[in-house]
Amino acid sequence: MRSKHAAWLLLALAACNRSPQPQAQAPATATAQPPVPAASPVDLSDISERDPHYLVGISFPPELKRHPALAAEVKRDADATRAEFMQQVAANKDYQGPGPFELSLMYSMVAETPRIVAVAAEGTSFVGGAHGAPLLDRYVWLLPDNRRLTAAELVPDPAGWQAISGYVRDRLMAVQRQRFDEDAKADGGDDGDDGQPEDAALKEQLKNAADMIEQGTEPKPENFANFEPVLGADGKIAALRFVFPPYQVGPYSDGTQTIEVPAAVLLPHIAPAERGLFAGG
Q1: Which residues does 178 contact at the CB level (< 8 Å), separation at least 6?
Q2: Region Disordered: which residues (predicted)?
């Protein structure tokens, strides 16, 4: 099941109109350590701070309280993100550009079953420059083991990432081809016999898109670190949705992009210990 926690965001949508910065960021991650059950409930109160120089808004879904160890990891990361932001605020106290500085971060539930819980983190950090930097992370939590499942653990064989990368790359390119073809038609351009736009400028854009997709989907687990389960009616994983922040596989204007890879494609490459989570496993 999928639910969204209704939460306010302090970041003004006007930030979207600013020109892009070099890359997206993940919310800060606290020092890695084996997750352990929390001895007491974690304080997941929403954070709202207002100052002449900065704004902070961080929100958490109430369902997260049902999973103390996961909640503790999420809270550690949120606190680390805020601490990093405040360091940047202090380091730029003489900043004279558009402001104030802003940190907006929302955590929401993606899935919750007796075996697996998934949480999404989405937000923006603006500490000067053209516009805010996107913040994006995904947590997939195994309840039997009470630990976070990483992409490297899920698909341990490099050959598996070759297959997954190829599948994702093909579908990202198909989306781009369709987009450029529609742009050409909207502009009154002619299509070739294969249905692809003939306009030289659009062809150049398609080549640039292909280059970004190829770089951002190199068959390495770190390029697929952000994933979330798509559950079937039986509660098993029918597909994984890989989430790519702006700049990884496209320009800032393309926003966050996602591709779903079905269980049938994934299963031959999934670690034996995790295959039971998947449909057909």
Answers
A1: none
A2: 22-44
